[in-house]
Design goal:
- The chain is of the alpha/beta class and 260 residues long.
- It folds into 2 domains: 199 residues, Alpha-Beta Complex (2-enoyl-CoA Hydratase, Chain A, domain 1), CATH 3.90.226.10; 47 residues, Lyase 2-enoyl-coa Hydratase, Chain  A, domain 2.
- It is built from 11 helices and 10 strands.
- The strands form 2 sheets. A 6-stranded mixed beta sheet has the order 1-2-3-5-7-10, with helices on both faces. Strands 4-6-8-9 form a 4-stranded mixed beta sheet.
- A hairpin with a 2-residue loop joins strand 1 and strand 2.
- Helix 3 packs parallel to helix 4.
- It is globular, with a radius of gyration of 19 Å.
- The structure holds ligand LHQ.
- Ligand LHQ binds next to helix 2, helix 3 and strand 6.
- The site of ligand LHQ has 23 residues, from helix 2, helix 3 and strand 6.
- Belongs to the enoyl-CoA hydratase/isomerase family.
């Protein structure tokens, strides 16, 4: 259910249930978690790209999985479902000590949009659509959307997107700050790989510590952010790459990063 491809330090994980626009079943979420954990542990992986097979990125929860029990009046424990299947995936992305890029190749809806928002960076194909679709089925945004979206676009815009469930085009997503880059459909895979490879060529530990500091800063007081920055900066400065970076600058040459 999740395809894996490695190229130049970039591991691409592709959701592979294209007939349903890669809607999330419990099995798909479990396999995605395993794939994310493997990527986190593999020293050869410097950047992770999360994308979807076929014309969709991810249509959120697979509704056929909940329709049966719901229609037959069986109790649905969505709290347990979210805690067991969505929470570990979202946390695995946030806690990964390397950059994770969502390559939104097509529609990202519901928890599929949350998955993209949980990543560090987002690139979008021109034809992709982004939709906080939850309220169309009278649910609230989950899988972290209520946390990520207002941080990215502000409270009012987040609430509007959630309440009206309007489809947002790639251009609008870019204007809103939801994604960093928009690429034409024809060259989306190549341009995404080049973007990821550029990140993979950066000093890995510095990026990992930057992510750690940003993660903490999203919910900390300024004083705490300054304290953590100082602590992590000390760690960054103990690296071989810091020495190399300064030396390369002094010698007016390009740095050769060791990744530590
Ligand atoms: C699907 C799905 C889908 C199954 C397309 N499921 N088959 C968390 C925990 C527990 C419970 C509930 O929710 C959550 C959080 C959530 O994620 S709630 C949000 C759930 N997702 C949705 O409500 C999205 C439902 N899908 C759509 O509204 C449309 O498919 C979108 C707008 C995503 C795309 O529209 P189109 O491009 O027109 O594609 P389509 O509708 O024709 O879909 C293609 C196929 O994929 C189709 O199957 P078929 O056999 O007719 O070709 C769809 O039934 C299937 N599909 N999303 N979520």
């Amino acid at each position: 259910l999740v395809l894996t491809r490695d190229q130049a330090g970039v591991r691409t994980l592709s959701l592979n249930s294209p007939d349903r626009l890669n809607a999330l079943t419990a099995a798909l979420a479990t396999q995605l978690l395993t794939a994310l954990q493997a990527a986190a542990q593999d020293p050869g992986v410097r950047v992770v790209v999360l994308t979807g097979e076929g014309r969709g990125f991810c249509a959120g929860q697979d509704l056929s999985e909940v329709a049966g029990p719901l229609m037959s009046g069986q109790p649905l424990d969505l709290e347990a479902h979210l805690n067991d299947h969505y929470r570990p995936v979202i946390l695995a992305i946030r806690e990964m000590n390397k950059p994770v890029i969502a390559a939104v190749n097509g529609v990202a809806a519901g928890a599929g949009a949350s998955l993209a928002l949980a990543c560090d960076l987002r690139v979008s194909s021109e034809s992709a659509q982004w939709v906080q679709i939850f309220s169309n089925i009278a649910l609230i945004p989950d899988a972290g959307s209520t946390w990520f979206l207002p941080h990215l676009v502000g409270f009012g815009r987040a609430f509007e997107l959630m309440a009206l469930a309007e489809k947002v085009s790639a251009g609008q997503a870019h204007a809103l700050g939801l994604c960093q880059q928009v690429y034409p459909d024809e060259t989306f895979t190549e341009q995404t790989q080049a973007y990821a490879a550029a990140l993979a060529a950066r000093p890995a530990q510095a990026l990992a510590l930057t992510k750690q500091a940003l993660n903490a800063a999203m919910s900390s007081r300024l004083e705490d952010a300054l304290d953590l920055e100082a602590k992590l900066q000390q760690q960054a400065a103990s690296s071989q790459d810091f020495r190399e970076g300064v030396q390369a600058f002094m010698e007016k040459r390009v740095a050769r990063w060791a990744g530590a």
